[in-house]
Design brief:
Cofactor: Zn(2+)
Largest sheet: 8 strands, mixed
Number of strands: 30
Distance between the termini: 62 Å
Mean pLDDT: 86
Radius of gyration: 29 Å
Protein name: ribonuclease Z
Enzyme class: hydrolase
Oligomer: single chain
CATH superfamily of the largest domain: Ribonuclease Z/Hydroxyacylglutathione hydrolase-like
Number of helices: 27
Structural class: alpha/beta
GO biological process, one term: mitochondrial tRNA 3'-end processing
Organism: Stegodyphus mimosarum
Length: about 750
């Protein structure tokens, strides 16, 4: 194709114009492919390179809508609009960043976040997106939505990013670029319910935003091959044809612009709507901007889809049903609410299914719902309760795509695992060893469940820090509470079981002010209050052990979003140190359980904690820390040491700079502490499924995985799993070894020599 251009005399073609021609040929060859999956996949990070300049001053060639979170119980409600130029999110709840990473959605492409209501569940995943975007070199992001959402950043305990988060003023009314126009539709809450004399009085502070989104028409592109066929020379005539003007060649032949252009790709419109409660309903259904999108108006047949963020109880109301029925019968309606299927992560299920082979009690299966609970049935309407990662392509061809939705076959997972070279043999050896170890039913408690074993930001395989310890049948404590903790509870226990656990939690400890250790706290507090409300009870007192900075964030949360009432008792970590901690007022509330915090070596005001239950057991949790003598002293002769091992041994220099620990350092700490058993956790996100696994001489060390549950009598089993795990994850472990660099080795050598 290119050779046809170089046949023109070189003197007639400037080098600049020649390069432009080559670019045009390249664009033509890319956009003329018929296969959508080859052409456009927002689930591939290479789709837009962070180092590649993207010309945004044109209409997008490719457009796709993706249901990232479908609003299932414990899951976020989030829809992403992705083009070949940029990405836009509608709401951004906890876990959105994790889901984007699992399915290779390019987070650095996301520059605009549209929020429907000033609720924590609509904003709680934003910090993850901000942190990730900063690593990609993104300098600025924009928020759109109700007044007050800009105060979200006030909840962050430290300046975690240099990225500028800009709130667009409501008075703008819309956002426009070369590809889309997104119009704001604010709906105000009525102070008085239906039936009241003053029912039309508006509540100025309660506003829900919906959005009318117009995808602009894509004009046909100049087809250079057709220009060559018609004999159009390089020069002004090409530019005229590109602008849509007909030209007459020197020979007198007329070349019509329509003959040398590809077909135009029509624009379309979709809506993102949110009617949070009945108090909004009258204003919502009577909104004039919506009427223009509905029958009998001519624009009704141009509405491709409506994404409903409204809750189930509102959708079931007669007025809402009538409102839906006013749309054209060919319009798709996607309902994002708690009745939807919750299967959102293939990686989690696959990992848990194969770990389940090692020990079905320690590695229990995840409880998630594969099929939706029907919400409603509208005759002659396309109503869908979408699974996560259902895609709706608008361009280059309109279609629904189900290829990225989670469809898990447990038998296939197991067969795939058993096909890994050497794994079946190691599994058989493990089973024979387990048979030789007598099982004890004594000491059922404590029960330790790892809900998050990663660091910084979550990955497909590991959530950020959280450990649930069941002290007995009616009291539990959370150690740290990273983003997505509530989702992890729901995944493991199911909706009913998660509410039971929330009602049992009597104490939460936050180790320090980094976001991967506390940003899930707000949702846990909200969910706990709701769990008691389901039982018709007032929440039992909850004891929070916090650094000062986290308490400040709780106060700000109460101002910006909502208060958690008077059922929370706050204790500062600094006041729980040393022997004073054991005699504190908190320990009088906790009965036989005694807590003591320990100042550790990480950021300022960072703590570990020691939990002691009479003479029966003693558990030490390090939080984030470099090797710390104070922790060793406080945890002496403990039953179980749970210690971070963020960075592998051959990156000792990096671990020292970031004030983290390596596995070998953890072993040394364990020996100095005389700990009976040790579990490593808080692994760097670079390791994805597994850290660098080692079998240590003293066989009392195990590695934590999300959803790993152990009792004290299970602890001797953990080291036995390592050979089978090394076989199971051999591909990932081999990848870790390949990434080891000479630079890191040199740094470690220099550090050790000091």
């Amino acid at each position: 194709m290119i050779s046809q251009f170089v046949l023109f005399p070189r003197c007639l073609i400037s080098w600049k114009r020649f390069k432009l021609s080559l670019v045009q040929v390249k664009l033509f060859s890319e956009t003329s492919q018929p296969d959508i999956k080859e052409n456009f996949n927002p689930f591939k990070k290479k789709f837009v390179s962070k180092n590649l300049y993207v010309n945004e001053s044109r209409v997008a060639n490719r457009v796709c809508l993706t249901v990232i979170g479908n609003g299932a119980y414990g899951q976020p409600r989030c829809v992403g609009l992705f083009t070949d130029l940029k990405g836009y999110l509608f709401n951004c709840g906890e876990g959105v960043g994790r889901l984007c990473r699992e399915y290779d959605i390019n987070i650095s492409q996301i520059k605009h976040i549209f929020i429907t209501e000033r609720k924590w569940e609509n904003l709680s995943g934003l910090s993850d997106i901000i942190i990730t975007n900063e690593t990609f070199g993104v300098r600025k992001m924009y928020m759109h939505g109700p007044p007050g959402i800009e105060y979200f950043s006030n909840l962050l305990t430290a300046s975690i990013t240099s990225l500028q988060l800009v709130k667009k003023p409501v008075t703008d009314n819309s956002y426009i670029d070369h590809s889309v126009k997104i119009e704001y539709v604010p709906v105000k809450k009525l102070k008085n319910p239906v039936g009241s004399k003053n029912r039309h009085q508006e509540d100025e502070n309660a506003v829900s935003f919906s959005y009318i989104c117009n995808i602009f028409e894509k004009q046909g592109e100049l087809l250079l091959e057709e220009c060559i066929k018609y004999g159009v020379p390089v020069g002004p005539d090409l530019l005229k044809l590109k602008k849509g003007e007909d030209v007459t060649l020197p020979c007198g032949k007329v070349v019509y612009a329509s003959d040398v252009h590809s077909a135009a790709q029509p624009g379309t419109t979709f809506l993102v709507v949110d009617c949070p409660s009945e108090e909004y309903l009258d204003a919502f259904v009577n909104e004039e901007k919506f009427h223009k999108c509905q029958l009998p108006h001519d624009g009704a047949d141009g509405i491709s889809a409506v994404f409903h963020f409204s809750p189930v109880d509102v959708i079931k109301m007669k007025k809402y049903e009538e409102w839906i029925n006013r749309f054209h019968q060919n319009t798709y309606h996607f309902l994002l609410n708690s009745y939807n299927p919750s299967m959102s992560s293939a990686a989690l299920h696959q990992t848990q299914n194969v770990l389940h082979l090692l020990h079905p009690e320690i590695f229990g299966l995840i409880q998630e719902v594969e099929k939706p609970t029907p919400v409603c049935s509208y005759l002659h309407r396309k109503i869908m309760q979408p699974p996560p990662f259902l895609q709706y392509y608008f361009r280059p061809a309109e279609k629904l795509c189900w290829s990225n939705t989670v469809s898990l076959n447990q038998e296939n997972c197991i067969e795939s695992a058993k096909s890994i070279p050497g794994f079946e043999e190691e599994l058989e050896i493990l089973k024979n060893k387990l048979k030789c170890i007598p099982r004890s039913n004594e000491n059922t408690y404590p029960e330790v469940l790892f809900l998050g074993t990663g660091s910084a930001t979550s990955t497909a395989y590991r959530n950020v820090s959280c450990i649930l310890i069941n002290i007995n049948s009616h009291d539990s404590i959370l150690l740290d509470c990273g983003e997505g903790t509530f989702t992890q509870l729901v995944r493991y226990f199911g909706q009913v079981g998660a509410n039971d656990v929330l009602r049992r939690i009597s104490c939460i400890f936050i180790s320090h002010r980094h976001t991967d250790h506390y940003l899930g706290l707000f949702q846990i507090l909200k969910a706990r209050t709701e769990a008691f409300a389901i039982d018709g009870k007032y929440p039992q007192p909850l004891n929070l052990i916090l650094p000062y900075a986290i308490n400040d964030s709780l106060k700000k949360f109460a101002v910006i979003f909502e208060s958690f009432g008077r059922n929370i008792r706050t204790f500062f970590c600094r006041h729980m140190m040393n022997e004073k901690g054991k005699e504190s007022k908190l320990n009088k509330f906790l009965g036989d359980l005694k807590l003591q915090t320990v100042l550790v070596e990480h950021c300022s005001d960072a703590y570990g904690i020691v939990l002691e239950y009479g003479s029966k057991w003693k558990i030490v949790y390090s939080g984030d820390t470099a090797p710390c003598q104070k922790l060793i002293n406080a945890g002496m002769d403990c039953t179980l040491l749970i210690h971070e091992a963020t960075i592998e041994d051959n990156l000792l220099y990096e671990a020292n700079m970031k004030k983290h620990s390596t596995p070998q350092q953890v072993i040394d700490i364990s020996e100095k502490m005389n700990a009976q058993y040790t579990i490593m956790t808080h692994f760097s996100k670079r390791y994805l499924a597994v850290p660098v696994l080692q079998e240590y001489d003293k066989r009392h060390v195990g590695y934590a995985f999300d959803f790993m549950k152990v009792h004290l009598h299970d602890l001797p089993l953990l080291p036995l799993f390592v050979p089978a795990m090394k076989s199971l994850f051999q591909e990932q472990l081999h990848s870790h070894l390949e990434k080891s660099t000479p630079v890191a080795t040199l740094e470690n050598a220099l550090f050790k020599s000091r």
